[in-house]
Amino acid sequence: MTSQLNKDNLPEHIAIIMDGNGRWAKAKNRPRLFGHNAGMKTLKKIVRASSDAGIKIITMYAFSTENWKRSPEEVDGLMNIAVEYFHKEVGELHENNVKINVIGNLNGLGKKVREAAVKAMDTTAANTGLVLNIALNYGGRDEIIHAVKALMAEGISPEAVTEQHISDHLYTKGQPDPDLLIRTGGESRLSNFMLWQMAYSEFMFTDIYWPDFEVDVYYKMIENYQNRNRRYGSAE
Ligand code: IPE
Ligand code: IPE
Ligand code: MG
């Protein structure tokens, strides 16, 4: 589908909490991993649609620092899906000039998925199209701690610390904050996603489970975003 969106006021950066895979599968009497596999297809579709629409950056929440609480089977299955995604999709993403950027604590991941992530990033490093941030073993609080530690290690004096310093030490350094946050799956919470960066993001929630999320709904949400009035604390 080619985007009919007005190009003037597009969100530069969209962040998405891809939620509802498990409940989608449960409703079909299938295992949770069936839902995660279906979710990967939606991810591919939405990445393509974002590129088509001329979005500059998307950040997709794939696995949180809290998702380790799930069963070993589910965690393993999710990691395998991530490896598969990196192996199978990088070719096409690269052809489409997409730059992959995995954000999160990569050192806390297994070797296989870490190596696949690093390879995907290396392969696409020079690309100039859509930036695809994949949040894997990502936690907003973990990211802020990581930034604070880095600043302290640099020996910065407490009085000198500014917002810019923190922003520059996050996994998203150099990127604008998300303009729009979308969460599928019916929950209205952040679940530790981009806590610092979401200070002035516009939020949109839908009950649709991630595997059922469609491009036309996505574009409607972007249109809805384009009609919002972002004030940043000012009076008008
Ligand atoms: C989102 O779907 C994917 C991940 C968190 C990895 P869920 O697995 O959270 O699905 P629900 O919320 O249980 O339906
Ligand atoms: C958030 O979803 C994490 C991802 C989508 C990767 P969760 O399903 O883990 O969030 P909670 O547990 O409902 O808050
Ligand atoms: Mg969930």
TrEMBL record:
InterPro entries: UPP_synth-like (IPR001441), UPP_synth-like_CS (IPR018520), UPP_synth-like_sf (IPR036424)
Required cofactor names: Mg(2+)
Any one GO molecular function term: transferase activity
Alphabetized UniProt keyword annotations: Magnesium, Metal-binding, Transferase
Cofactor note as given: Binds 2 magnesium ions per subunit.
This protein's record includes keyword Magnesium: yes
Record EC number: 2.5.1.-
Residues of the active site: D19, N67 (proton acceptor)
Binding-site residues, substrate: 20-24, 32, 36, 64-66, 68, 70, 183, 189-191
SUPFAM superfamilies linked: Undecaprenyl diphosphate synthase
Gene3D superfamilies reported in the protein's UniProt record: Decaprenyl diphosphate synthase-like
Positions with a binding annotation for Mg(2+): D19, E202
HAMAP family associated with the record: ISPT
Protein family (similarity comment): Belongs to the UPP synthase family.
Function, in words: Catalyzes the condensation of isopentenyl diphosphate (IPP) with allylic pyrophosphates generating different type of terpenoids.
Subunit structure: Homodimer.
NCBIfam families: PRK14830.1 (NF011405), uppS (TIGR00055)
Protein name (record): Isoprenyl transferase
Protein source organism: Acetobacterium malicum
